[in-house]
Amino acid sequence: MAGRSRRAVAVLCGIQFVDVLGVTSGITALPAMLSGVSAPPAATPVLATVYAMFFGGLLVLGARLGDRYGHRRVLLLGCAAFALVSLVGASAQEVVQLVTARGLQGAAAAISVPSALRLLLDASPEPDDRRGALAAWSASGAAAGALGLLVGGVLTEVFDWRAVFWVNLPVGVVLIVAVRLTIPRSPGEREPVRLDLTGAALLTGAVMALIVGASALENPHARTAGALLIAAGLAAGAVFVVHQRRVSEPLVPRAAFASANLRTGTAVSFVNTATTSSTGVLATLSLQQELGISAVGAGLALVPFSLGVVVGAALTKPLGARLSVRRLAAAGLAGIAAGNLLLVLTYGSVGGVVAGVAVAGIGLGVASVAGTAIGTDVADTLSGTASGVLNTGAQLGTAVGVAALLLLAATTGGSGTAVAWAVAAGLAGVTGLILLTPASLRSRA
Q1: Over the chain, what HEC string results?
Q2: Number of domains making up the chain
Q3: pLDDT at 1 over 60
Q4: Per-residue pLDDT for 192 more than 70?
Q5: Are residues 184 and 164 in the same domain?
Q6: I need a labelling partner for 414 at 20 to 30 A (CA). Which of 85, 322, 337, 347 fits?
Q7: Is residue 445 part of a domain?
Q8: Mean pLDDT of 82-90
Q9: Residue-range definition of the domain harbouring residue 233
């Protein structure tokens, strides 16, 4: 990979890291945020989910905006918006302003990430280079998701909750300058497409309802509302599919719906986050509530997860030379299953948590790279859409996985956490076995 391409990949992975970090970095600071603007506790669920709502809901629209107006231009717009709306949050004096800032941050991230992935694929056209670039992309995203809780806690303790917002301004400026210096203009990358705004509204509403509904299931007093929201989200999703079949220029091109690679990659992305985000949340709660570890201490105990992701992503290059991409994804899912089983077997041990999340992290690193490689093995005209769909699948996996397994842990007695980890292991293992079926292995990927 040429030096310019390496610099471009590093910058684009930095954008992925910052945008994904925003999902979890604000979670640790939530109590301080609510106290700082004198907000009632009832505002917690909205503030906790609004970033993920807009991030997950607008990813596909963000991808199509890149297709129409140019991915470099849309990426720069997203980076600028992310930095500027952070000022709104940092200066917030009441909860409405704070919620608005978090929602706009999520929207800016949704605009940025699909175009960043498309540009990363363009910067690494050779198979070996692309595998390395995807490894870095997957490692940066997964590591950011795990480190966000720690980063948010440290910023809040050392400075103030407003630092969680302030820090994004200089970071955003650096990223804008770096994109302008390393990413060349591509005048031929735009597509003369008409944006399907009705489809965008339906998909955004469906994803938002699913994310909020899944989050509500975690609260015993809001489970009925959560179930209704999930039902509404599924209904909106069904209407979206019907609409896409009827409209002349759909939000998701028909070729994308027909792509077996995109469907498989999205399923792998969903299972990856469903079985690891939930693992991390359950581990954090177990460390604090059952073993008496502080919030920062629990965050430090999860650092091996992030390191494991980096190791797993790095392993994909030598493993990819020997295994097909689907076998590679199956191997990564097996690692996730093994990590969850280790957590079950060592339940109640701090050392067991550290070892279990490290093994799961290695598996996630391998499976993330493989899942992204499968899902982006599509025609060039679909690569922008594919990046949005894949990231949407990952966001839904996080929301649904965390909600479902927290609910399972809360309703299965004293060993509920171990039961939830066992279920996560089973889901990852079964998905890996499906990828090894003859029909799957005969696929082009």
Answers
A1: CCHHHHHHHHHHHHHHHHHHHHHHHHHHCHHHHHHHCCCCHHHHHHHHHHHHHHHHHCHHHHHHHHHHHCHHHHHHHHHHHHHHHHHHHHCCCCHHHHHHHHHHHHHHHHHHHHHHHHHHHHHCCCHHHHHHHHHHHHHHHHHHHHHHHHHHHHHHHHCCCCHHHHCHHHHHHHHHHHHHHHCCCCHHHCCCCCCCHHHHHHHHHHHHHHHHHHHHHCCHHHHHHHHHHHHHHHHHHHHHHHHHHHCCCCCCCHHHHHCHHHHHHHHHHHHHHHHHHHHHHHHHHHHHHHCCCCHHHHHHHCHHHHHHHHHHHHHHHHHHCCCCHHHHHHHHHHHHHHHHHHHHHCCCCHHHHHHHHHHHHHHHHHHHHHHHHHHCCCCHHHHHHHHHHHHHHHHHHHHHHHHHHHHHHHCCCCCHHHHHHHHHHHHHHHHHHHHCCHHHHCCCC
A2: 3
A3: no
A4: no
A5: yes
A6: 337
A7: no
A8: 89
A9: 196-250
